[in-house]
Design goal:
This protein is mainly beta and 874 residues long. Among the domains are: 223 residues, Immunoglobulin-like, CATH 2.60.40; 283 residues, no CATH class. It has 5 helices and 48 strands. The strands form 6 sheets. The protein has a 24-stranded antiparallel barrel. Strands 1, 3, 6, 7, 8, 9, 12, 13 and 14 form a 9-stranded mixed beta sheet that branches. A hairpin with a 3-residue loop joins β4 and β5. The two termini are 56 Å apart. The relative contact order is 0.09.
């Protein structure tokens, strides 16, 4: 009890010793007649009160006078907030006015940021460029999270004249969240960016080394007797789809070479209370979303893909729950929205004369989200989604039958978080549930129930300078014995691994439970030195992958980070940062897996170029996945470096060069990666970027197969020489702020050539060369007609075991052409053309011209879409 008392007193001390930044305020003026939104300020309403010109430069020279004058004024009526900004410019012909797609600010812009919750953590952002391009987003966690995919309904017009340029905004109160009060007091900030000077100026100066962002805002006051207004809208859609692909006469699913359909659904947005919004989607469609980039994954872990679907991105700041809230050292998250609507888990085991048609993705029947923040400081996030049962059709050309490849699945997430002490203290929790209706034996490898949960506590003090954060999580999965065996054997834990006393495979189990946690302490502002210390742990039984994302369990890790920064210009630099990390990782039994560290530098020059450099060192590493369930494999120590150089982003031609190189001792592994990003802006309406990349690697121990013999287990490995080439092309043509055409295309070629086949003898031997044995030439025979290698291990002339030829050439092309027209606020027309090409060879040799020609000769899979949405305000 004494210990709990001390902990309570400690937190009470932290909470009670606060220091808050000085604030400044502005009084909004109420009007009776709404001004016309045209960017001209010639109506009577704009003549009320004075224009405010109290701005301060933040960058490049903090605290200095701005190079140009900026003035603003705030008006309001019962339904709207009006913001007028005049950005004076002594050289108006040099104002940079680039057209781009929404949410992509280029050139001169102004930004209005409103903390209408007045919680000092959350802000609604409305920005516009001199060319009239909008950007809107939600800032949360006092600036640590930005949700750029929030697309509210608001109105703005800009004008350029001989004095500079203007922005006139009209923001509906339906798009803001605030409580019922007689007089409102909101956090408020206005920022102007003068692009040609790379200068930013602010009404309420936020220091560069401030420990927070929203908490540093000034105050917008004077708004009396305005009523919170609940948004109510419904946006139905219809989409027509045509697919064209190669005809295959004997395949009944491809004999016509085409397929077409028409689909429909709707999205709805409803204000449940003043502060909580319900988003509803019935049969949502994401056909206009850009395809995932190509890559080859030879690791034991699942590839992580970014979420690109707007329904799941909006509000993700409250839904996400990472075990570690700083950096990317660990990516574990209790919510990975790509699980919803994922590729089906099962693929039918068809006969040689049978053909299979299986859906690419699971159909989301419905999804709803409840998100917002109450007036008492509770952030709330609830997600409920149902993904339908999916079936594959199997045909022999005469008869068809169905087989379920994904069961009916329900996903649920609940998240709450409470702010205290003007946003300096947070306490929250999360719970997720995945429930599958499994009615077929071949799907018994899936969990029928999976639950995760967690809590978080965070406290900041001394004007957000110092931070303490604690997180805890748990998981519980249930299912058939087959499902729990597979979970135990997965690459996250490998319970079957020999010589590991703290884990044991239990084939009788029908459930598995795990837990984890993290502790973080550091200094994150107010000074040149910042630092952070982390301790994290995950028990062997932790399993998040039904609704979250997790690569590893059975791990305890410690990470330290320190940074020294020069934020103000000096000598040739605009700014300069030097940082260092160190880490140690153990398994749950206390076995040290790796120690490492790095040093890195990041600098921006006064000529607006930038340069980044870093060196990374790892000790001898015990690799848990090298043998795919065998013992740890002792990998030699490693060294790698990376470098990046970027030219002035203001210029019509911008070039970013990057590269990295790594080595391990004994020539165990070597790799090189180089790339360049060219960006061309021949006109204010057009930008083109070309990003070629090339990488080579050589690794002496790459897993191929495991053979279970009578008295032995053989882990078969090979030396792999891998070469990868990719090229991304992006073209953005903005005809109007609400009318744009975008193209993205990526040819991708990767080859892997295996040689020096070997098997593992003693994976932990002190002498590196005692860890494996290379097969002699007489032990290996390749059968070209069957594409297999036969091994005669004991030289008796008979085959002891065999394995498939692991050489590969992956050829892929991904592209999207999207024309997007927001013909009225919230209503959009999409025209989409998507093309994919795929080929796979076993040559293993990289020949760029040959492979590009082969890719060009591969028959394309084309998809054409026309999608129309129309928003009805209710």
């Amino acid at each position: 009890m004494k210990t709990l008392g001390y902990i309570f007193l400690f937190f009470t001390f932290l909470i009670s010793h606060q220091s808050f930044a000085d604030s400044k305020s502005f009084q909004a003026q109420k009007i009776r007649k709404s001004p016309q939104i045209d960017g001209r300020f010639n109506e009577e309403a704009w003549k009320k009160s004075d224009w405010i010109n109290d701005f301060t430069q933040r960058s490049p020279y903090e605290g200095k006078e701005p190079s140009e004058l900026t003035k603003f004024k705030i008006l309001y009526d019962n339904d709207y907030l009006y913001v007028g900004i005049r950005s004076f410019d002594s050289q108006p012909d040099k104002i940079v006015k680039r057209l781009s797609r929404r949410d992509n600010l280029e050139g001169d812009y102004v930004s209005v940021q409103i903390d209408s919750y007045n919680d000092k953590r959350t802000a609604f952002v409305f920005s516009v460029t001199a060319a009239g391009v909008k950007e809107d987003m939600v800032i949360s966690d006092d600036g640590n999270n930005n949700n750029i995919n929030w697309d509210p309904i608001w109105y703005v017009e800009t004008q350029i004249d001989d004095k500079g340029w203007t922005a006139e905004m009209k923001i509906p109160f339906t798009q803001l969240r605030f409580s019922k009060k007689g007089e409102q007091s909101w956090g408020f900030e206005i920022i102007r960016s003068i692009y040609r000077h790379q200068e930013s100026v602010m009404w309420k100066l936020i220091p560069k080394d401030a420990g927070g962002w929203v908490s540093q805002f000034g105050q917008l006051k004077g708004m009396n007797n305005i009523k919170p207004q609940k948004e109510k809208s419904i946006t139905p859609y219809t989409v027509a789809k045509l697919e064209k692909f190669e005809k295959v006469a004997e395949n009944p699913f491809k004999s016509s070479g085409s397929n077409s359909n028409i689909n429909a659904g709707f999205n709805g947005k409803f204000g449940v209370t003043n502060n909580l919004t319900l988003d509803l989607a019935i049969n949502p469609d994401f056909g206009q979303v850009e395809a995932d980039p190509s890559q080859v994954n030879l690791s034991a872990y699942e590839t992580f893909f970014e979420e690109k679907r707007p329904f799941f991105i909006e509000g993700s700041n409250i839904m996400n729950f990472r075990l570690m809230v700083f950096g990317n050292f660990m990516s574990d998250n209790l919510f990975y929205s790509r699980r919803i609507g994922r590729t089906p888990h099962y693929y039918p085991d068809a006969e040689d004369d049978e053909y299979v048609k299986t859906p690419d993705n699971t159909n989301i029947l419905s999804a709803l989200k409840l998100t917002g923040k109450t007036k008492s400081g509770w952030s709330v996030g609830v997600l409920e989604s149902v993904a339908g049962k999916e079936t594959a059709t199997i045909s022999d050309g005469n008869d068809n039958f169905q087989q379920t490849v994904e069961p009916l699945t329900n996903y649920f997430l609940g998240r709450v978080q409470k702010d205290f002490n003007e946003g300096n203290t947070m306490l929250g929790g999360i719970f997720t549930a995945t429930n599958r209706k499994i009615n077929h034996d071949h799907l018994d490898f899936l969990h029928d129930q999976a639950y995760t949960g967690g809590f978080n506590f965070q406290h900041q003090w001394k004007d957000k300078t110092y931070m303490l954060a604690i997180r805890g999580i748990f998981s519980h999965v249930r299912g058939d014995n087959e499902a729990i065996i597979q979970t135990q054997r997965s690459s996250a834990r490998y319970y079957q691994r020999p010589n590991t006393p703290h884990t044991k495979l239990d084939s009788s189990r029908n459930s598995l439970t795990g837990h984890g946690g993290s502790l973080m302490f550091g200094k994150m502002g107010n000074g040149k030195i910042n630092y952070m210390l982390f301790v994290n742990y995950k028990s062997p039984g932790l399993e998040l992958n039904d609704m979250g994302y997790q690569r590893k369990a059975d791990e305890i890790s410690q990470l330290g980070w320190i940074q020294y920064g020069f934020r103000e210009p000096f000598s040739i630099f605009k700014n300069l940062f030097i940082s260092s990390n160190q880490w140690i990782v153990w398994d749950y039994a206390g076995t040290n897996l790796v120690k490492g560290g790095n040093v890195q530098m990041s600098m921006n020059f006064k000529n607006h170029w930038d340069f980044h450099y870093g060196v990374n060192v790892n000790s001898v590493t015990l690799d848990r996945t090298a043998l795919r369930g065998g013992q740890y494999f002792k990998e030699p120590a490693s060294l790698n470096y990376w470098v990046n150089l970027g030219t002035d982003p203001r210029k019509p031609v911008q070039i970013d060069l990057w590269g990295n190189q790594s080595w391990r001792k004994f020539d165990y592994e070597k790799s090189k990666n180089i790339g360049v990003d060219f960006t061309f802006r021949p006109h204010n309406t057009l930008d083109v970027s070309i990003s070629p990349s090339y990488s080579t690697s050589n690794k002496e121990i790459q897993y191929i197969d495991t053979k279970e013999l009578t008295n032995d287990t053989k882990y078969l490995m090979g030396t792999i020489n891998q070469t990868t080439f990719g090229l991304s092309l992006r073209i953005n043509f903005s005809i109007l702020p609400d009318l744009s055409i975008q193209y993205w295309g990526q040819p991708f070629i990767a080859s892997g050539n295996y040689s020096d086949f070997k098997y593992i003898t003693d994976p932990l031997a002190e002498n590196y060369y005692d860890r494996f044995e290379v097969y002699h030439g007489s032990q290996v025979n390749y059968k070209n007609e069957d594409e297999i290698y036969e091994i005669d291990e004991n030289y008796d002339g008979s085959v002891d075991y065999s394995f498939d030829n692991p050489d590969f050439n992956v050829l892929q092309f991904r592209s999207n052409l999207v024309a997007r027209w927001e013909y009225m606020p919230g209503s959009t027309l999409y025209l989409v053309w998507s093309q994919n090409r795929d080929d796979y060879l076993h040559s293993g040799n990289f020949v760029l011209n040959r492979d590009l020609n082969a890719l060009g000769n591969t028959y394309p899979h084309n998809i054409f879409l026309v999608k129309l949405t129309y928003r009805f305000g209710l």
